Amino acid sequence: METKKIEKTLVASHSLKTTLSKIYEAVGVIPNKVKEGIEKQNISPVAPQIWNYIDCNGSMDAEFTLEVCIPVDKKGTDTEFISYKELQDFSCEAHTHNGPWSDFVEVYPKLFGELEKQGKAYTGNVREVYHNCDFEDQNKCVTEIQIEVK
User: Fold this and answer.
1) Which of 19, 48, 35 is nearest to 128 (CA)?
2) SS3 state of residue 38
3) Using CA atoms in the order 127, 29, 74, 55, what is the torsion angle rounded to 10 degrees?
4) Segment 9-48, tens digit of pLDDT
5) Would you say the pTM of this structure is higher than 0.85?
6) CATH fourth-level superfamily of 2-149
């Protein structure tokens, strides 16, 4: 893992309450709606999409807030579906995962185990940055997992 400080990022986002067992209901659907919304406002994405997990404790059935975010070049007008906001600075331990998202059930416990060994405290917030999404061949997916630490 690599220690990083992520700077503030302007995003278009959609926020929802979900659980890890239901999160796949959002895959593809919500990011596409956010993209359509910003395109209607002539706003361009400037970086890969970010899924911001807030107060997620890792339990499959515990509810948490998920923000599906797309970094943008300028702030637009909020709609019923999209809000524009700045993600705050984020100090984290980052790991780049190459391969299917289904591997996350094995990857996350290893990452949290490493944090524990290092004596670093998890804040309850995680971001996943999707550098490459390939629904046809998930072996080509590249996801950066950013675990916020104190």
Assistant:
1) 48
2) helix
3) -30
4) 999 999 999 998 888 777 778 898 999 999 999 999 999 9
5) yes
6) Regulatory factor, effector binding domain (3.20.80.10)
